[in-house]
Amino acid sequence: xxxxxFMEVSRMMRRKTQAHLCxxxxxxxxxxxxxxxxxxxxxxxxxxxxxxxxxxxxxSIFEGLWRTGSPEGFRVIPYHSVGKKRGILYGYxxxxxxxxxxxxxxxxxxxxxxxxxxxxxQTTGYCMILNPMVLEAGQKQSG
Length: 143
Prior knowledge:
The structure is a single chain. This protein is of the alpha+beta class and 143 residues long. It is built from three helices and eight strands. A six-stranded mixed β-barrel has the order 1-2-7-3-6-5. β4 (72-81) and β5 form a beta hairpin. The longest helix is centred in the first third of the chain and has 18 residues, at 2-19. The chain starts with a helix and ends with a strand.
C-alpha cells in the first residue's frame, strides 16, 4: 500500500511540474536561445537596487547568448533557499525574453537573470526558473 501511495504522489508531482513548464526565448547580443523553463510561484527573488524580479538560468546556457560583446547590467544578488541559508548569485540584464505559456506569448524587456553553476534540474528537462512577477510586467501577444 505504501508503494502505491508513493507512486501516485510521484505521478501527481510530475504532472504538477509539467503544468508549469513553458518555453522561453532569450535574446542576447548576437544570439537567441529557446529553453524550457519552470514557472516557479515560490521564486520571489528580486534584484535589490531596482526591485526587478530575477529569473534563474544555467551558466552554460547564458554564455551562449553573448557571441559578440559581453553582458551588461552586472549585479550581485543575495538569496536564500531551501538547503542553503544564504548565497550570492551573479546576475545580468538580458535585453529581451519571450515567454510562451500554453500559447500565450509575453515579451519582457530588460530582465535580470541570476546565473547558477551546473544543472538546475537534472531529470525534469528545464534549465531556467522563471519568477512569476516577470509575467506581470510582460506585454501580451498572440502566438
